[in-house]
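Section 5: illustrative case.
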C-alpha cells in the first residue's frame, strides 16, 4: 500500500506510480505474444528442427512441405483464437488480475509440451496449440485490464506499451535464434529447445507480479464491491491516503453512473453484442463489428508475413544470412513503436491509422512489384530494395497499426459487454493470424512475391475503414466514450470535436460545472416527483428537470430508453409538442443494428453452421440437394455467361448435386471464365442475402428463385429423390409467401443466399482438401496461369467472403425497418392468407 501514496502529475492530474508499474508488468503479456511469434521463423531453418520434424523428400533429405509447415506455424493461432473467446468468461469469473495468471499457467504448460517433443511434428504442434490458448487469454486480458485500471491521462500510452512489448519479444526471439544458431549450433536439438524453454522464464514475472497489483475498479464495482473499487481507484491515482479526493470522486462518479445504468438491464450476452438489447447501449453492434474488422485487418496488413516466414522468404530471395534480416526488421519494429506511444496521446487515434495504412500500402506495392518484375535471386540489388521496403512497412506498422488497434479495442466497448466484445474482436485477430500462417507457404509456392499485392489492397481498405468508421477517443474516460456514441450529431469524422459535459476541452475540466453539480446533489436528500398524465416523473435534484437539449449530468446518455424518458420529462417545462418531438428523435436514433437486424445476423451465423454440418453428413445431406442444384446452376451459368461475353461458345452444361457441375466451353478469356463460376455464385448469394433482410425484397427474389428451381428439374430428370426435393422447395416458397406476410419466406431466401455466398468455400474444401475430385476450376487455372490450386482457391474464397460481407452491410444499411413495419409494407404486395381471411 506504500506505493499507493506516490503519484506524479501528468497533464495536471495525479497518476499513481502503481498504475505505471502495473503497465510495465502486464505488458509482459505482449512480450510473450511477440516472443512466440518471432521464435518460429528462425526455428524453421534450424537443421536439427528440420531433421526431427520435416518430411522425407525421397532423396534421403528432409524438408517441410507446405502443408506441414502451414499447420506447424498456423495452428497455434487456432489455440489463441479459442483462448481469446474463452477469455471473455475467465476475465469475468476470476477477475482481471487472476485471469492473467491463468493465461500464464497455460502458456507454461504448452511450452513444456514443445520442449519435450522428440520426432513428430504433431507433438510440437499440440504444444503450440496449448501455448496459444494461454497467449489468447493474455491477448484479451492484458489490454482489457490496462484500459480499465489506468487513469485516462496515461491509458493510451500504457495500452500501447502492450504492442511495444510484442515488438521487443519478436526482437529478443530473433536475437536468441541468432545466438543459438552458432552456439550450441543449429544441428543440435539444444538450440531450439533453449529458445522455447526461455519463454517459460519470461512468463513468470507476469504470472506472479500481477497478483500484487490493484484489481480493476470497474470489475470490482461490477461485482457490487464498491468500497474496494474506490480504494483501488485511489491507489491507481496515488491517493490511497485520500480516497475521497475530488479527482477520485469524479472518476468514481462517472464509473458509478455508467455501471448502475448498464447493470439495470442485467448481464450482457453474446447476442447483445450484435443487437444492443435489452440494455439499449448505443451503437453496440457497430462497435462489435468495427472491433472485429480492425483486429482482422491488423493481421492482414501483412506484418506476420515477415515475422512468421521472413527468414524463409529472404533465404529464397538469395540473402546470405536471412536471420540478420530478421534482426534488422525486429530492431526497426522496436525502435519505431516508441514514437507510437507519443502519437497515441498527442495526435490521437484516427489520423495516424489512416496515414499509416496508406504508407504501408505504398511500400508493400513496391515490395511486390520489385519481387515480381526483378526476381531477387537473380538481382541482388532488387533484394536490397525489398529489404528496405519491408523495413519501411514495419516502421509504419510499429508506430501506428501495431499499438493503436489494441488501444481502440480497450476503449471502445462498454463495461457490460466489454469482455465478450473484446473477446470477439481478438478472436478475429487470431483468425487473421491463422490465415496468414496457413496461406503463406501456399502463396509463396504459387504466386510468390505477388502475395504482396493482396496486402497492398488490405492496407488500403483498412485505412478507409478507419476514416469512415473509427471514432476519436483520445483523452476521454471510458464512460464518456459511451456518451459520445449516444450523441446523434456526431459521426466518426467529426468525433474529434466532441467534448463531454463538464469540460472546456477534453483535457480541461470546467470547475464551475462540477461545483454547480455538487451543490445541486447536496441540496436535498429526498427525491420529489410530479405526476404528468399517468406517469410519475422524477424531479429530484439528482435527476433534475432540464431544458430540452441540455445534458443533465446525472442521467447517462448511453441508453436509448433513458433518452426517451428524458425527452418525456421535458413535458414539465417544454410542453407536449416539444416533448413529443424529442421523444421521437431519441427513440428514432436508436442503434445501427436494431432487434430485427440482430435476429437476422444470428440466423445467418446459424445457417453457416448448419450448412457446414449437413454438406457432407451421410444420410441427411440429401436435405440440401435442391439448394445444391440451384447453387451449382448459378455457378455453371456464371461460367457460361462470361464465356459468351468474352467471345467463347458453350457446348454443354451438366448439373449434379452429388458430383457438382461441368460447363464445356470453347474459346473465350479463360482468365475470366474460370473464376467466374465461384465469384458469380457468390455475387448472386450476396444479392440474395441482401434481399433476406427485408420481406418485400425477399418476395421479389423468391419469384426469380422459383423459376430457377423449376429450370433445374431438367438436369434432375433421372433422379427422382432430387426431383421430389426440388418440387418440395418450390412448394415451400409458395407456402411461405402466404404465411404471415412472408416472414418465413425471408428466412428461406436468406438460407439460399448464405449457401450460394459460401459455395466456393464448401466446394473448394471438397475439391482441394478432401480431394473428392481430381480436377477443379482452381487446379485448371493453376495449370494454365501458374501458382498452386490451393492458393487460387483460397483467394477466390476470400473474395466470396468479401461479397457476402458487403451484402450483409448493404442489408443493414438499406433495411432498418422492424418486423412489424416490414409486415405492414409487404401486406399489399400480393394477398396473403391473413388478408384473404379478412376478405
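Designed sequence:
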Amino acid at each position: 500500500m506504500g506505493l499507493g501514496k506516490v503519484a506524479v502529475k501528468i497533464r495536471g492530474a495525479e497518476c499513481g506510480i502503481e498504475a505505471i508499474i502495473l503497465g510495465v508488468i502486464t505488458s509482459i503479456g505482449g512480450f510473450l505474444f511477440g516472443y512466440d511469434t518471432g521464435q518460429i521463423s528462425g526455428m524453421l531453418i534450424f537443421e536439427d528442427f528440420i531433421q526431427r520434424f520435416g518430411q522425407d523428400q525421397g532423396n534421403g533429405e528432409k524438408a517441410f512441405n507446405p502443408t506441414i509447415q502451414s499447420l506447424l506455424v498456423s495452428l497455434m493461432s487456432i489455440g489463441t483464437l479459442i483462448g481469446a473467446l474463452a477469455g471473455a468468461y475467465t476475465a469475468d469469473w476470476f477477475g482481471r488480475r487472476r485471469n492473467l495468471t491463468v493465461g500464464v499457467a497455460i502458456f507454461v504448460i504448452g511450452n513444456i509440451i514443445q520442449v519435450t517433443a522428440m520426432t513428430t511434428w504433431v507433438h510440437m504442434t499440440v504444444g503450440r496449440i496449448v501455448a496459444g490458448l494461454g497467449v489468447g487469454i493474455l491477448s484479451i486480458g492484458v489490454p482489457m485490464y490496462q484500459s480499465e485500471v489506468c487513469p485516462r491521462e496515461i491509458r493510451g500510452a500504457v495500452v500501447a506499451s502492450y504492442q511495444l512489448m510484442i515488438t521487443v519479444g519478436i526482437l529478443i526471439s530473433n536475437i536468441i535464434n541468432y545466438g543459438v544458431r552458432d552456439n550450441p549450433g543449429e544441428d543440435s536439438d539444444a538450440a531450439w529447445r533453449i529458445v522455447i524453454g526461455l519463454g517459460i522464464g519470461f512468463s513468470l514475472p507476469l504470472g506472479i507480479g500481477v497478483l500484487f497489483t490493484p484489481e480493476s475498479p470497474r470489475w470490482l464495482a461490477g461485482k457490487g464491491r464498491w468500497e474496494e473499487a474506490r480504494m483501488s481507484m485511489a491507489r491507481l491515482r496515488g491517493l490511497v491516503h485520500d480516497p475521497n479526493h475530488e479527482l477520485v470522486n469524479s472518476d468514481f462518479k462517472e464509473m458509478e453512473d455508467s455501471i448502475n445504468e448498464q447493470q439495470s438491464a442485467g448481464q450482457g450476452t453474446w447476442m447483445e453484442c450484435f443487437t444492443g438489447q435489452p440494455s439499449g447501449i448505443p451503437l453496440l453492434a457497430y462497435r462489435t463489428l468495427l472491433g472485429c474488422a480492425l483486429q482482422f485487418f491488423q493481421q492482414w496488413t501483412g506484418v506476420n508475413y515477415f515475422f512468421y516466414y521472413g527468414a524463409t522468404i529472404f533465404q529464397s530471395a538469395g540473402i546470405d544470412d536471412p536471420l540478420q534480416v530478421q534482426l534488422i526488421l525486429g530492431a526497426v519494429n522496436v525502435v519505431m513503436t516508441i514514437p507510437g506511444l507519443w502519437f497515441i496521446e498527442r495526435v490521437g487515434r484516427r489520423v495516424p491509422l489512416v496515414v499509416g495504412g496508406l504508407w504501408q500500402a505504398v511500400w508493400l506495392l513496391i515490395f511486390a512489384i520489385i519481387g515480381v518484375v526483378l526476381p531477387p535471386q537473380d538481382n541482388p540489388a532488387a533484394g536490397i530494395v525489398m529489404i528496405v521496403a519491408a523495413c519501411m512497412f514495419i516502421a509504419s506498422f510499429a508506430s501506428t497499426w501495431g499499438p493503436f488497434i489494441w488501444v481502440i479495442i480497450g476503449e471502445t466497448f462498454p463495461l457490460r459487454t466489454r469482455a465478450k466484445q473484446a473477446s470477439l474482436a481478438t478472436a478475429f485477430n487470431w483468425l487473421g493470424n491463422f490465415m496468414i500462417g496457413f496461406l503463406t507457404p501456399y502463396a509463396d509456392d504459387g504466386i510468390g512475391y505477388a502475395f504482396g499485392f493482396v496486402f497492398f489492397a488490405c492496407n488500403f481498405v483498412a485505412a478507409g475503414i478507419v476514416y469512415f468508421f473509427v471514432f476519436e477517443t483520445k483523452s476521454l474516460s471510458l464512460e464518456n466514450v459511451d456518451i459520445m456514441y449516444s450523441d446523434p450529431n456526431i459521426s466518426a469524422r467529426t468525433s474529434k470535436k466532441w467534448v463531454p459535459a463538464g469540460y472546456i476541452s477534453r483535457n480541461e475540466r470546467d470547475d464551475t460545472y462540477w461545483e454547480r453539480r455538487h451543490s445541486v446533489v447536496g441540496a436535498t436528500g429526498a427525491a420529489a416527483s410530479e405526476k404528468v398524465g399517468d406517469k410519475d416523473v422524477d424531479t429530484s435534484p439528482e435527476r433534475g428537470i432540464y431544458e430540452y437539449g441540455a445534458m443533465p449530468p446525472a442521467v447517462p446518455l448511453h441508453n436509448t430508453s433513458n433518452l426517451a424518458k428524458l425527452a418525456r420529462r421535458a413535458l414539465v417545462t417544454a410542453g407536449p409538442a416539444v416533448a413529443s418531438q424529442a421523444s421521437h428523435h431519441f427513440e428514432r436514433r436508436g442503434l445501427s443494428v436494431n432487434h430485427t437486424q440482430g435476429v437476422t445476423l444470428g440466423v445467418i451465423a446459424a445457417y453457416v453452421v448448419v450448412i457446414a454440418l449437413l454438406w457432407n453428413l451421410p444420410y441427411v445431406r440429401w436435405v440440401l440437394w435442391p439448394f445444391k442444384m440451384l447453387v451449382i446452376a448459378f455457378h455453371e451459368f456464371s461460367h457460361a455467361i462470361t464465356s459468351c461475353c468474352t467471345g467463347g461458345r458453350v457446348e454443354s452444361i451438366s448439373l449434379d448435386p452429388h458430383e457438382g457441375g461441368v460447363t464445356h466451353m470453347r474459346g473465350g478469356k479463360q482468365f475470366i471464365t474460370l473464376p467466374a463460376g465461384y465469384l458469380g455464385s457468390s455475387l448472386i448469394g450476396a444479392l440474395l442475402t441482401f434481399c433476406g433482410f427485408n420481406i418485400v425484397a425477399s418476395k421479389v427474389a423468391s419469384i426469380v428463385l422459383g423459376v430457377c428451381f423449376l429450370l433445374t428439374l431438367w438436369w434432375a430428370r433421372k433422379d427422382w429423390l432430387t426431383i421430389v426435393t426440388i418440387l418440395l422447395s418450390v412448394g415451400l416458397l409458395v407456402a411461405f409467401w402466404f404465411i404471415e406476410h412472408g416472414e418465413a419466406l425471408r428466412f428461406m431466401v436468406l438460407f439460399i443466399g448464405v449457401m450460394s455466398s459460401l459455395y466456393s468455400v464448401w466446394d473448394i474444401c471438397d475439391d482441394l482438401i478432401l480431394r473428392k475430385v481430381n480436377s477443379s476450376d482452381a487446379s485448371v487455372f493453376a495449370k494454365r496461369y501458374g501458382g498452386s490450386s490451393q492458393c487460387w482457391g483460397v483467394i477466390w474464397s476470400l473474395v466470396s467472403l468479401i461479397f457476402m460481407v458487403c451484402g450483409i452491410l448493404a442489408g443493414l444499411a438499406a433495411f432498418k425497418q422492424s418486423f412489424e413495419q416490414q409486415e405492414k409494407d409487404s401486406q399489399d404486395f400480393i394477398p396473403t392468407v391473413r388478408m384473404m381471411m379478412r376478405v
